[in-house]
């Protein structure tokens, strides 16, 4: 019987890397909780920044947080006020370890290739009561123009205020979930409407690597 697994987790060590890069025997549990708090804080504090993912690295007493986003200006703020405020928030709940906190912002050059950015945009438009079919088709068309190999969008919930919840899927190209060597970006976001929550899942398959073309 087939089982569901996160596409990023399924490809760890092959074509995807760990989002938390550190090792510590003594404070392992505390660091896991701290990483979760940092990510939750960033997602709440910069809700409209379209954050794709957050990388956390630890080396000695140095803590480096790298935020990948398509809207860096929302996080940086005027004169870097947003980053300074985020640093202070991290230092407040990380008192057990005297860390030197560094926050880096990595801009996503092509938002159409990021599943998290696409899912966030779809959720925002659904919350503004834009018809979900139009939103999904616009997202697919934008990714096609970005030369994405394949894409799938799944929207579930009380769509258009219907009494019975249902799921609708939109896709183009190929999305080989069982091919471990094929990089697949996946994200899940929730849209909050007056009729309830609507879940959005997005899978994006990047274009084949140049090595495979040369072999042909």
Strand and helix layout:
Elements: H1 7-10, E1 20-21, H2 28-45, E2 51-59, E3 62-69, H3 72-76, H4 81-93, E4 100-107, H5 115-127, H6 132-145, E5 150-157, E6 166-173, E7 184-193, E8 196-205, H7 210-215
Parallel strand pairs: 1-2, 3-4
Antiparallel strand pairs: 2-3, 5-6, 5-8, 7-8
Helix pairs in contact: 2-4, 5-6
Protein name: Small ribosomal subunit protein uS3
GO molecular function, one term: rRNA binding
Function: Binds the lower part of the 30S subunit head. Binds mRNA in the 70S ribosome, positioning it for translation.
What does this structure look like?
The protein is of the alpha/beta class. It folds into two domains: 16-107, K homology (KH) domain (GMP Synthetase, Chain A, domain 3), CATH 3.30.300.20; 112-209, Ribosomal protein S3, C-terminal domain (Ribosomal protein S3 C-terminal domain). Helices cover 34% and strands 29% of the residues. It contains seven helices and eight strands. The protein is globular, with a radius of gyration of 19 Å. The two termini are 35 Å apart. This is Small ribosomal subunit protein uS3.
User: What share of residues are in beta strands?
Assistant: 25-35%
In N-to-C order, the SSE pattern is HEHEEHHEHHEEEEH
Q: Major sheet: size, sense and barrel closure?
A: 4 strands, mixed
According to CATH, what is the topology of the largest domain? Ribosomal protein S3 C-terminal domain
> What gross morphology would you assign?
globular
Q: What's the number of domains?
A: 2
Per DSSP, the total helix count is: 7
CATH homologous superfamily heading of the largest domain: Ribosomal protein S3, C-terminal domain
What is the number of E strands? 8
Q: How many angstroms separate the termini?
A: 35 Å
What structural class do the secondary elements suggest? Answer: alpha/beta
Q: In percent, how helical is the residue content?
A: 25-40%
State the strand order across the main sheet. Answer: 1-2-3-4
CATH arch. level architecture of the largest domain: 2-Layer Sandwich
CATH C-level label of the largest domain: Alpha Beta
Uncertain runs are: 211-216
Using only CA atoms, what is the Rg? Answer: 19 Å
As an assembly, this protein is single chain
Domain KH type-2: 38-109
Function: Binds the lower part of the 30S subunit head. Binds mRNA in the 70S ribosome, positioning it for translation.
GO molecular function: mRNA binding; rRNA binding; structural constituent of ribosome
Protein name: Small ribosomal subunit protein uS3
